[in-house]
Structures are given as C-alpha cells and as structure tokens.
Amino acid sequence: MTHVVLESCIRCKYTDCVDVCPVDCFREGPNFLTIDPDECIDCAVCIPECPVNAIVPEEDVPGDQQHMTKLNAELAKGWPSITRRKAPLPDAEEWKDRTGKLDQLIR
Amino acid sequence: MADSPAAALPVPIETDALIVGAGPVALFAVFELGLLEVGAQVVDSLPFVGGQCIELYADKPIYDIPALPFATGAELIERLQRQIAPFAAGFHLGQQVNEVALREDGRFDVATDAGQRFVAKAVVIAAGVGSFQPRRLKIEGLDAWRERQLFHRDPGPEATAGRRVVIVGNGEAAVTAALDAVEAGAASVTVVHRRDDFDAPTPLLLRFQSARTNGRIEIVTAQPSGLQSEGEVLKGLVVDGSDDRTRTLALDLLLVLLGWSPKLGPIAQWGLALARKQLIVDTERFETSTRGIHAIGDAVTYPGKQKLIVSGFHEATLAAYAVAERVHPDRAQPLLYTTTSPKLHKLLGVDPANPSPPALP
Predict the structure, then answer these.
(1) Would you give the DSSP letter of residue B349?
(2) Chain B residues contacting A, CB < 8 Å?
(3) pLDDT at A56
(4) What is the 8-class DSSP label of residue B123?
(5) Distances, alpha carbon B258 to alpha carbons B171, B192, B249, in Å
(6) Taking Cα atoms as reference points, which of B105, B131, B103 lies closest to residue B44?
(7) FRET partner for B297 with CA separation of 20 to 30 A, picked from B145, B185, B193, B330?
(8) pLDDT of residue B29
(9) 3 state SS for B50-93
C-alpha cells in the first residue's frame, strides 16, 4: 500500500508534505511531487499538510484519478528525492483550485 | 537422524510467547506478559531495540504518552527497557521471522532468517509498519555484488584496510563507517551524498570534518546513477554530480548506508486475515484469525483503530491477558495492582516497604 499524490499538485508544488515525511519518500519533478510507493509507509502525516488536499491513501484515490497511482510509481523512479520544503511555484495560487491539469504535467 | 539437515540447526528455544517486533508496543507487551508470568522472546529485523521510535524518531519529540509530558523516541525506548528489565526477555535482533506454523500440540513453530527456531505457546505480532530492510540504491544489477563488494552495513576494518571505499549516505552510519575506514587504513574513502550535509552526533561530525580537512575523506555531492564492472568485479560507481557532470568513482568496496525502510515482509504469507495490508484483530483479545496468534500496534486494524503508541499500550495489555489464558489455562487471572500486590512486587523484584524503581539486571 502507499499514498498517492493527485493531479491537484500539478503546477502548485507547495512541498509542505516533504518536511513531515519520516521516510523521505517524496520525489520532485519540475511542477509536481510524487510519492515513491516503495518507500511510503502509510503513516498519513503528509495528508493534512497539503494545502490543496492532493494526497490520499491508495484505496481512497477517486475514480477519475485512478491513473495517478501508476503515474506516481512511474515518475518516482526517475525523479530526485526532496526532503526539505521550498517555496511553491510562483503561480501556485492561480492553479491550486483548478482540475483536469494532467496535460500541464512536465515530466 | 544425524544426517538430517535439521540436526545442524540450533536447538529451538521453547517459550511462552514469541513477540515479532521490538518497538515500544512490543516492549510494553513484555512487561504486561511478565506481570502475568508469561515469559517472552523478542525478534526484530533491526539490529537494535526500539523500532520506528529509534529508526525514524530517535531525536524527535513525543508529547502524547500519558504522564510523560515530553520524551524523544530514544528516551521513551530507554524508559521502556528499564521498565521491562525485571522480566529478562530474550532478544534476537537483526533477524526476521520468516515462518510461523501451528504444530499438532497447539504450539507454534517459529523460524527466523538467521536460522533461529522457537517453539512458542503463543505469538504476538507487534511488527509495526513492517520489517525494516536496508534502503538500496536503485541501480539495475547492483545486487549481484551484495556481500562481496556491496554492503549495507560496515564490513569492518579487515575488509576496508588497503581498499578504495566508496560510501553512499549522510547519516550517522555513513559518517561512522567513513571514520572507521580511515582508521582501518583504507586506500581512499569517498562519501557520496546529494548535498554536502551530514547528520550525526557533533563529536563524530567534528572528527569527520577534520578527516576531510586532512584529505583522508573526500566528499562528492552527487547522485549515484550507474555502475562500472569488468566481468565478476565491480570497478566503479557512476554518479551524476551537482555540477551536472557525470563521473565514475573507482572502488573496491561500496557501502550503501542509507538507513532502513520498512517492508510488510513475510507476515502477509502466514495465512492471517488482512485488510489494507493490516492484520484484522478483535478488540477484546487482539487475536488474529488464527487462535494463539495475537497482533497489536501499527500492524493491526479494527474499527476505530488509531496508530498511536498509547493505543498500542492498551492493545498490548489486553493481548497479554488473552495470551496468559492460553499459556496458563488452569489458572484464574485475577486483576492485580502493581501498587498493592505482593505477588507482582516479587515478580518485579521490588520491596514495597522501600519503594523504588526495579533494579537493572
């Protein structure tokens, strides 16, 4: 089992989650964070940290976001680890409430 | 029977309860079982006691233990070890319980990956988020050199003397291994981490810094990305530098000391009912779908379950009473208070006329 970052994170990348992760399981891409399913221990402390509620346990991934479980695992393989919080993307405020952002993802 | 392979294995340890895991909840189970005159043997995959409290939270504060307004993970474990000392449980660390099987006599055969075997009247699984395994570098093919040129522990001075040692990591284990390799007379010591940022107790960091200044330890800020080999020999670690340069670090020994990461492990194969990869237990006896196998702490789920240490302590207490019923079936288990019970005072080795904490063995 693992936790999954949903599309809401795309173009926001607030990174509050990475500070609290006890096992450093977040990986950073240009405009999205992903969780490495091999490292996540389902402790759930990251969930309330995310200002856009982008993180959910694998079983609670909504129907229209099912592809994100696989995408998290795939992207985690190639992206570097992020363990310290940094500033969100400059236009995060503008993007945070938008949906259907998958085409904005930069790999 | 002399030529049977089983004859070469150590004699199984007979015990009342076998506890899988040595985190805070497991340690408190030793205490509650001890008060009920149930002996325990404890197995944990980590080479030390304390589980997540030590591996993930040793220096981090905990504020929600009753009557303990503040403790670090390490302090909590140290206090629990003091509390359970009177019961002299056996500890088997650095090994993982692989098999649990019900015997015809109603007891359980338990075996670890280190070859230790137990015959237990009851099993208590307090395995938390799983069995901690060394974090590996995700480089294809690297595992082929494991225990030959690749180690996830410090292989010791005899292995490092005269060798070119490359260490990946930035924690206390990596810093200590680097200093030990210098001391052992390694030909070179190179430490690779993505940032020039090391996390270890200050005295170690001071020695580390001075070895760097003297040129005995080289730091490379880079991420490992590949390997170089010739036939059966691992020759080098390819790293992508923070300056976007790729280089190869020549080596004889590669130590990957990136800490430990929990994996569910073999528990999933023991035929116990699971929900969301957690063991389903009842809330009276904290028993799994197999009678005699109890489970407590972060490894379990039940309606209302919260993954809190304080909840784990309660679970350990009720599980201990259920285990005691199985271990001492013909004995009533009256409720006794540690404050007033002469029997418990005897078990704890304390003198109520002169109240004091139990003596350390």
Answers:
(1) T
(2) 52, 56-57, 129-130, 135, 138, 194, 223, 261-262, 276-277, 307
(3) 95
(4) E
(5) 7, 11, 18
(6) B131
(7) B330
(8) 98
(9) CCHHHHCCCCCEECCECCECCEEHHHHHHHHHHHHHHHCCEEEE
Neighbouring residues of B76: CB distance < 8 A, sequence distance ≥ 6: B24, B53, B62, B65, B68, B309
d(CA B142, CA B148): 11
Q: Do A77 and B138 touch (CB under 8 A)?
A: yes
If you ran DSSP here, which 8-state letter would residue B274 be given?
E
What is the three-class DSSP state of B26? helix
Question: How far, in Å, CA of B142 to CA of B256, rounded?
Answer: 11
A77/B307 touch (CB, cutoff 8 Å), yes or no: no
Q: What is the pTM assigned to this prediction? A: 0.81
Q: Quick: pLDDT tens for A4-24.
A: 999 999 999 999 999 889 888
Residues contacting residue B269 through CB under 8 Å, at least 6 positions apart: none
CA distance B5 to B257: 35
CB < 8 Å from B in window 41-60 of A = 41-44, 57, 59
CA B101 – CA B287 distance, rounded (Å): 16
Contacts with B342 (C-beta within 8 Å, 6 or more apart), sequence order: B352
Chain A nearest CA to B202, separation (Å): 21
Is ipTM > 0.85 here? no
pLDDT band at A52 (very low <50, low <70, confident <90, very high): very high
Q: What is the 3-state secondary structure (H, E, C) of chain A?
A: CCEEECHHHCCCCCCHHHHHCCCCCEEECCCCEEECCCCCCCCCCCHHHCCCCCEEEHHHCCHHHCHHHHHHHHHHHHCCECCCCCCCCCCHHHHCCCCCCHHHCCC
Q: Which residue has the tokens 């107790």?
A: B201
Sign of the alpha-carbon dihedral angle for B212, B215, B218, B221: positive
A23 and B56 in contact by Cβ < 8 A?
yes
Amino acid at site B33:
L
For residues B23 and B84, is the Cβ–Cβ distance under 8 A? no
Give the residue ranges of chain B where pLDDT is below 50: 1-7
Neighbours of B170 (CB within 10 A): 22
Nearest of A6, A59, A75, B136 to residue A17 by alpha carbon? A6
Residue in chain B lying closest to A39 (CA): B261
